[in-house]
Amino acid sequence: MTQTRPRPADPAQPRATAPAEVIAHPAPVAGSLECQPLWAAQYRISLVTLDFCAIVAATVLGYLVRFGDSQNSAPYLAIGFVIATGWMATLQWAGGYEIRHLATGPEEAKRILRATGMTVGVLAVICYATQTLVARGYVVGVIPIGAALLLIERAAVRKFVVRQRENGEWTNRIVAVGTADSVRHLLSVTLRAKGAGLQIVGACVEDALPGDYVAPGVPVLGGVLEAAEQSAAVNADVVAVTGSGLGPVGVRELGWKLEGTGRGLVMAPALTEIAGTRMHISPVEGLPLVWLEQPQLNRGNRLLKRSLDLAFAALFLLIASPLLLVTAVAIRATSRGPVFFRQRRLGVNGAEFSILKFRSMYADAEQRRIDLLAMNEQDGGGVLFKIRRDPRITPVGRWIRKFSIDELPQLFHVLSGTMSLVGPRPLAAIDSDYTGAARRRLLVRPGITGLWQISGRSELSWDDAVRLDLYYVENWSLGLDISILARTALAVVGSKGAY
Questions:
Q1: Digit-coded pLDDT (tens) for 147-177
Q2: Which of 17, 258, 349, 405 could form a disulfide bond with 400, CB atoms 3.0-4.6 angstroms apart?
Q3: How many CA atoms lie within 13 A of 13 on its CB side?
Q4: Cβ–Cβ contacts within 10 Å for residue 270, how many?
Q5: Helix H segments across 9-131?
Q6: d(CA 313, CA 323)
């Protein structure tokens, strides 16, 4: 292969190079403190301390719940210490302190619950083997209280970490390896998920020259075969292989070069918007094959989802009936026009239906829309029309939009089967505007709530809304629906993105 002489760097954009002494330093021994950045050590120490305090608090509260202010507490002090120590050990075993799971939300919660289950199992075996009698009321109190405190404490820590990462701190510095296009795709993902703490500081690509930039702020450091050396030069924490160029042998040799340096090696396959539960790795003769399961919305799961829709929609309507009545009276008393707003929307498989919402705008809102097109704050090319301070919204309408009360009449659509509690957002029936990938979102019933409501609502662009809806269609699960319903309550209370 012929070598192309690198072009000189653009003087307006300085090349990302590192001092020679960075390269000259010997590689740290794997597992040493030098292998991890300072913030990682601070995080682990803080998390261990907070977890231990939460578990100790649970043992004290469990004792008070079971025994009150009884003075016979000495044996349970020892039992509480054993539970706390064992629980911390199972958290470590379950990967609760691994940096890659930091602030990951569901994955972090899953590991806490796994450690909790193992703690209960080990405690039961020890009590049986040693014939130790422990009050069941004490254990029943300690375990759920401890799990709840751990989840609450981890959620608070996660908020702090995300805030740090949004400010550019507590991040993993990444050198991306592959092609310019694959690096740009990885960059777009990391920019969308700033809370993940992934910062691409440079690229080693096969189709650009050192001194070029694959994207603003991401300089080309060298070729794909120079990834190990260049990652040391810029003090990267992780090397991410994103595309072709290295080949199987090259990736293996890159792993060898990174051994003992403390830098991680990540493979970013050409898979996007796929939930981890659908991916399974099966090694064949040393070759890891990634198997993708088909989307889970089969007939049985559709029946289960429909049953839950009926049960919860009926319950929500019963609870919300006084609020529905008060809202209807307020709308009728404060502005002319009908109580409800109706509009044709696209349902499952593209079937049209007339959606029902509380009217939040003046009766002539549609006629005034053409005069406000220049004020549209969405980039959906007319598919979405949102104005932060829309003059067509009534005073009552502004209030019911803030807390999504205008959506409550859609519970009747859930009962009738045209909508679901959770699903893609139901958009206006302008069939020509929903082409390509956007059509796939019509495979399921539209929902009152969904990923877009808990991810920014009106602040999302059309492309982001479609991306989230497609993710839901491709990765549906009962757990995902329950998670969305729980997070919807928080989004409604916070009123983020509602206008």
A1: 999 999 998 888 888 888 888 788 889 999 9
A2: 405
A3: 14
A4: 10
A5: 20-24, 38-67, 74-93, 106-130
A6: 15
Amino acid (one-letter) located at 325: L
Take residue 477 and report the two structure tokens written for it.
Answer: 């699960």
Coil vs helix vs strand at 146: helix
Q: Half-sphere exposure (CA, 13 Å, Cβ side) for 149? A: 20
Per-residue model confidence as pLDDT tens digits over 37-74: 778 888 889 999 999 999 999 988 888 887 776 666 66
Task: Give the rounded percent of residues in the chain with a pLDDT score beyond 70.
Answer: 77
Name the pTM for this structure: 0.61
Burial 334-348 (b: 16+ CB within 10 A, else e): ebeeeeebeeebbbb
Radius of gyration of the chain (CA): 28
Residue 73 DSSP SS3 = coil
DSSP string, 436-483: GGGGGGGGS--EEE-TTTTTTGGGS-HHHHHHHHHHHHHT--HHHHHH
Q: Provide the CB-side half-sphere exposure for 17 (13 A, CA).
A: 9
Do the Cβ atoms of 250 and 219 come closer than 8 Å?
no
Tokens standing for 304? 């289960």
Q: Is the dihedral of CA 243, 247, 250, 256 positive or negative?
A: positive
Separation of CA 329 from chain center: 39
At residue 274, does pLDDT exceed 70?
Answer: no
- Amino acid at the residue 442: L
Residue 112: CB atoms within 10 A of its CB come to 22
Q: What is the maximal distance between C-alpha atoms in the chain? A: 84
The helix/strand/coil state of 276 is helix
DSSP annotation string for 88-121: HHHHHHTTTT-GGGTT-THHHHHHHHHHHHHHHH
Average confidence score pLDDT of the chain: 79
Q: Record the tokens describing residue 180, joined without a space.
A: 């310019």
